[in-house]
Amino acid sequence: MNRKRLVRFFGACLIAAGIAVAAVSGLKWKNGLEAVKPLSVEIERQTGDAPMQIQSSLYPKQPKIGEQIGELIIPKLNMSLAIYHGTDEDELEKGVGHYAGSVLPGEADNCVLSGHRDTVFRRLGEVGQGDLLIVRTSAGTFTYKVRKVRIVDADDRTVIVPKPKATLTVSTCYPFRYVGPAPQRYVLVANLINDRS
């Protein structure tokens, strides 16, 4: 009799553990905890290097992490999305994240934005070469034209490299309908074509 009780007890424990694991996994998936962070965040964690401090001529002071710095307007999708400084989960839950180690919108070099593929960037795959991206901040309105669409591996570091002129790099996980941590990134590379400071 004791053996039957012991087998039932262990069986119940295994079933409860399986349900708990499935529930936690389901919640993580549902809440979109797969962060869509620029690859530079992974580099920072691996190397221990903090993001470089960027001197800005357009912006009198560097924004604080979590602060809203502007909005990303995607005319083709008729969308306007809030941009927050930082790419941790707190910022990405609210909207588009701006990688703190990159320049601010409108400045020379590479401004990197990221967002979740299952929230703010659900339709980003519809945006392609020749489409416009408009960023509105306290420093002005900056219009970028997409010159290239790239699909890169999740560990590709070229997304964050410096650029010789004002560039906007927008990334999200790819494929868009992939279940679980996506193996690639969908990347839009756009050049500044006009600014209204």
From TrEMBL:
What residues form the catalytic site here? Answer: H116, C173
Q: Which CDD domains match?
A: Sortase_D_1
Entry keywords, A to Z: Hydrolase
Tell me the organism: Geobacillus zalihae
Per its UniProt record, what InterPro entries does this chain match? Sortase, Sortase_D, Sortase_D_1, Sortase_dom-sf
Specify the protein name: Class D sortase
Q: One Pfam family this chain carries?
A: Sortase
SUPFAM superfamilies tied to this protein: Sortase
Key word Acyltransferase present: no
Span of the secretion signal?
none
Coiled-coil segments: none
Q: The organism sits in which domain of life?
A: Bacteria
Q: Which GO terms describe its molecular function?
A: hydrolase activity
Entry keyword annotation includes Hydrolase:
yes
